[in-house]
Amino acid sequence: MARSSFGLGRVVVNIVLVVSVILLVIVLNRRDSVFATNQTIQEVPNCTASGCHDDFAKRKQKHPLVAEKKCATCHQEIKDKNHIFAPLKPQPELCTQCHDGMLEKKEFLHGPVAAGSCTVCHDVHGTSHKKELVAEPRDLCLQCHVEMGEVLAQSPYRHKPVQENCSLCHDHHASNNKVHLRLAPEKLCLDCHKDVNKSITKGKVDHAPVKTNKQCFNCHKPHSSDFAHLLVKSEKNLCLDCHSKPLVDKNRTIQDIGTLLQKKKNHHGPVIQGNCTACHSEIHGGDGFRLLGLAYPEKFYTSFKKEKYALCFKCHEPQLVTVALTDRLTRFRNGDVNLHFLHVNKDKKGRTCRACHDTHASSLPKHIRESVPFGNLGWELPLKFVKTKTGGSCQPGCHKRYKYDRIEPLQNIPKIPKVKKGKVAEK
Hints:
Layout: H1 2-37, H2 54-58, E1 61-62, H3 64-67, E2 75-79, E3 84-87, H4 93-96, E4 108-109, H5 111-114, E5 126-127, H6 137-144, H7 146-154, E6 157-158, H8 160-164, E7 174-175, H9 185-192, H10 194-202, E8 205-206, H11 208-211, E9 224-225, H12 235-242, E10 247-249, E11 252-254, H13 257-263, E12 266-267, H14 269-272, E13 285-286, E14 301-302, H15 319-322, E15 333-334, E16 337-338, H16 339-344, E17 350-351, E18 361-362, E19 371-374, E20 379-382, E21 386-387, E22 391-394, E23 402-405
Antiparallel strand pairs: 1-5, 2-3, 4-7, 6-9, 8-13, 10-11, 12-18, 14-17, 15-16, 19-20, 21-22, 22-23
Helix pairs in contact: 6-7
């Protein structure tokens, strides 16, 4: 009985061995049939038609070598039977064998380029994006520059190129300019901002920050800002960064506006609004006196013409100085004699607005000056203005003390030519 059981066991073992061999043959045959479909590169028209890489041919943006079916330019077969391929060279040598001029003699390299990691940004076979990028250009940049993306999302003002494509300003491979700019900063900005370029290159009056130190970046942020025009801070505070100390410009000293505003309580409207460019609108440079955007007399005296005061009349009514007699246009009158007209509207030595008014700030009402620069010796001509309830008086260096009163006209004011009330005496 024991011997019979032993014989039966040997039969079972033999059966198992035979079945195992049969199964192994079947597996090997199936493997060979699979490999037979994955033919070598020479046995099919091209890799994209081999049944393995068909999707490469369907991609919208294909690498030129994929489109030309020149796979062997980059790949080598290392196992013929198994149809296994490898790059001919490692990155970036493989890429630069064609793209050899891209990095030549460039001082600043983009991080992935410097690391030789071309495929961080590019799919070497093709994608749905231009230049075989793995994502849309801006989205791709922000996948690494995460903090920049967070700032942009929170900023109310964004530079237009940032919204469209970072590579409009930056070379994403290499550059001789810092932060991979395509051109030197001032050239890059002016390449788009043609109007600013014209102001800078053809204007008679320069604004120093435009041409010194960081140039455009002295005042503007390149990507985004919390302030209009991409300013680095509010307009008024930005201007006062420089104009809070005396500035020497050629043969004159520019007033310390910051200290003036601190000491004088009555500020001009645009100053209160923090809008320096309301008057100094040629901020990049131009032909206007002191970068003013409209005409304003340069000298203490001038003959009167309306066009000479275009800047003032942008806000103030011209009738202030064109109407000789009035009982309502101005409080600076002796009875109905308009004293603005008397001072300004002259054929020769009309007093300009700044003869009596400070255009930035004053301790006196209506921006009346305490004194005014006169001549080239640095002397300040005192006004000695005194206000009363219904008028006032002044005793500058140019005449004795004259008084005026709107209710009870005084006789010490020089007479003006006889004109009818409300008559406009324009020139």
